[in-house]
Amino acid sequence: MSRHPVRDSSEFKELLERLAVVDDLARAAAVLRWDMETYMPPGGAGSRSQQVGTLRRLSHQHFTDPRTGELLHRLAGVVQDLPYDSFEASLVRRALRDYERATRVPARLVGELGEATALASHAWARARSANDFASFAPYLERNLALLRELADRLGYEQHPYDALLDEYEPGMRLSDIEPLFEKLRDALVPLVQAISRRAGMVDDSLLHQPYDEQRQWQLTLEALKAIGYDFERGRQDRSAHPFTTTLGFGDVRLTTRIDPQDFSSALFSSMHEGGHALYEQGIPEELARTPLGDAASLGTHESQSRLWENVIGRSREFWRFFLPKAQALFPDQLGKADVETIYRAVNRSRPGEVRTEADEVTYNLHIFLRLELEKELLTGRLAVKELPEAWNAKMESYLGIRPRDDAHGVLQDIHWSQGMIGYFPTYALGNVLSVQFFDQARSERPEILEAVAHGEFQPLLSWLRERIHRHGSKFTPKELVERVTGSPIRVEPYLAYLQRKYAELYGL
Amino acid sequence: MSRHPVRDSSEFKELLERLAVVDDLARAAAVLRWDMETYMPPGGAGSRSQQVGTLRRLSHQHFTDPRTGELLHRLAGVVQDLPYDSFEASLVRRALRDYERATRVPARLVGELGEATALASHAWARARSANDFASFAPYLERNLALLRELADRLGYEQHPYDALLDEYEPGMRLSDIEPLFEKLRDALVPLVQAISRRAGMVDDSLLHQPYDEQRQWQLTLEALKAIGYDFERGRQDRSAHPFTTTLGFGDVRLTTRIDPQDFSSALFSSMHEGGHALYEQGIPEELARTPLGDAASLGTHESQSRLWENVIGRSREFWRFFLPKAQALFPDQLGKADVETIYRAVNRSRPGEVRTEADEVTYNLHIFLRLELEKELLTGRLAVKELPEAWNAKMESYLGIRPRDDAHGVLQDIHWSQGMIGYFPTYALGNVLSVQFFDQARSERPEILEAVAHGEFQPLLSWLRERIHRHGSKFTPKELVERVTGSPIRVEPYLAYLQRKYAELYGL
């Protein structure tokens, strides 16, 4: 008798083969998109979009083929007796969930969404550079209409938003995240105000000097190597917007950007993307070419990037290790700095209009604002034409500032033009989880933070590998947090971390 | 009534859509392969081969779908009344030819060939570095057995070799090329001998000095820009083996290699690949995403690379224009050189064991040797185990040298391990055609060569665009040569060019 009766069955093998083709097509599309953002000459844009469209369509066709469903339904019965976290049971569970979502959406709607969001992305780019929200409004309305239909097709119990959120955070509902976010908001708004009153306490002028781009590049490579990113199985390149992408097992790449007047932009971009990349590099080969070969969710993903960027990268311990390296590359700019000076500089908090430039304290308020608005847009309670004013009003009440114009306000993010509603909350979830996971790690391995000061990142990384990365997407984010920390998602650790850190920095 | 009754018909549109998907998949595979050779980290190799395999298999499946044949056969009747070179008639003719070839080969054989050649390529790389032909022999035997079956499936009238050659040179047979090659061989062997007796006449020590790699890179970019390569629709990168690839309409890339001890290696690699790339950049958008969007054949392709690399790049006129540019980048190495010195240096001829390093005179003899051997291998008249000795003996009779070992002899090329038998003759055909086309161009536009001396390449390029590039693969190579030059393929112009040039260089 076979030792792996399910895995060795012809039906399971057939399923694996089908899923491998689907995954190959998706990864091929990832190669094409990586190239688009890094090296593609301008002339290639038109044909490249067609190619990516073809790959996505074929991938969807292969996945939603009725034979996939047949195999999944038959195997669902067979794997019942296997452990919940076994490869076979997890694979069938996850694939069935994805299959059911995918087949609820008619091909016609997939096509219309693809077309509408492509047009809307172009309209958004034009509108942003012309600071002309009105020209973008009809495209956003069209996207919203299609997303409402999408939510209806996917189905939901309480709120259409749940159907969209579920794409990025499997199993997560508004009713899960709103109570968390309210608690956070109620604590962060006064914290921002308190910091604003003592703005002069922290000086980051050190960062704002000319920094040679080649040397900045070298510095990011040193940081990535230090934290354990494997360059044999990945690489770093430059792009306008930093991102991480998996092009296949053993090939997880990231990009960064360089600001010649502030080396911390490239460094923290690289550490952020490096955190994402460590997660993907930690997913074992067994899960490759299956739907289990991804992160559990976007929020889980973001927990890793934020952990490395903020909890580690903006800690005193990290700078005790890393300042001498930065000084060796930038003796003129940093030669006289001490750990305390650089620690304070990289942790300066100040309300700003742009989310991607926000610090740890203000960042989440940018997210809550977006979540509240997109919920209202989706139900139609907020009209698109009223959106800019609603945006600005919320900005004022949360952060005490009004954007100088729509380009730096409601038009700053690409997400809505691409039809990604339900995506923003994953950023805030990632922030919350970064500290919940880190506290758990320290409670199990108290030496982790002090090791960082000696340039030893392996204690932390191996814990993350063991507890989080190696599971790929076997578990939903809720299940994962429970397994790792023994409790549901909680904001208290994160809030305590922020309050402690900023009370000390600003003498509150 | 429609102005384009065929083009506007639903069947023609359906055909175009099917072919576009096939092309998208092939171009996506080209992106994946380009990345493999340029930027992919080592860890990505395994999953990348799987992805390329999946794309190729799907592309083949889509193309050989019976519906493609149905549409093609119906449309073949409809386009009969349209001009031979019309888009519609050409498309159906070319696609039908490809379809019939593709459907004659069972999927089983395609799979076996894919697997056998993948194994053989690895075995070849190991065998070459260990200088161990015997370890490669069984893989070559397996390839040959499969290629014999392939030839039988494809069908042929006179010789199984014809079936394989037809893949690279549509419509070309051994009976077309052998008489040409014999004439060439009979003239080149004595020419090589005559040059060998006067080897001291030409000195290329100028080339063999340290040349800064950055500056070499700049020099190749200047050459490419000068000849008209469009960097908005392409780019140059480095790779171990230079190549050109089309990743989509508007995205034709090339690679080069740099020898820090000889700047001419990078320069001529770039001009060679640049010639290929100019061809592909000259194929009009109308033909994109169809089987007409390629070159007429590999030989035709090579005619363009050789024309720019040799006929232009190794001419006195080119160096009258280009020497000052090279001198500006390399004042120490080239400051004192004159046009005559560099012209002689880049045209030095000397028999060598390695094809890819061969000069204009000896290059074709490397090809004839391979063609003669692979013909005998295919029919089984030559046993694989006798191959190394047969190789060495031919080398001696054609070039007067014996390779130092098999690694630099019979194991030097990757082609046979990849199952590419019938490919080598296209290199010699390209050499022959480069001069036949160039002579025709000069007879129509006598100013072309003198313009090169002034850095004006447009007269030549626009002629090539008009007469060759814009047709894509509407014509077979034989048809194209007839249309362009008014005669069949002839070796006399090429032979006259070589004899004139080398008689003068070596005082023969």
UniProtKB/TrEMBL annotation, chains A, B:
<keyword id="KW-0121">Carboxypeptidase</keyword>
<dbReference type="Pfam" id="PF02074">
    <property type="entry name" value="Peptidase_M32"/>
</dbReference>
<dbReference type="InterPro" id="IPR001333">
    <property type="entry name" value="Peptidase_M32_Taq"/>
</dbReference>
<protein>
    <recommendedName>
        <fullName>Metal-dependent carboxypeptidase</fullName>
        <ecNumber>3.4.17.19</ecNumber>
    </recommendedName>
</protein>
<comment type="function">
    <text>Broad specificity carboxypetidase that releases amino acids sequentially from the C-terminus, including neutral, aromatic, polar and basic residues.</text>
</comment>
<keyword id="KW-0645">Protease</keyword>
<dbReference type="GO" id="GO:0004180">
    <property type="term" value="F:carboxypeptidase activity"/>
</dbReference>
<keyword id="KW-0378">Hydrolase</keyword>
<comment type="similarity">
    <text>Belongs to the peptidase M32 family.</text>
</comment>
<keyword id="KW-0479">Metal-binding</keyword>
<keyword id="KW-0482">Metalloprotease</keyword>
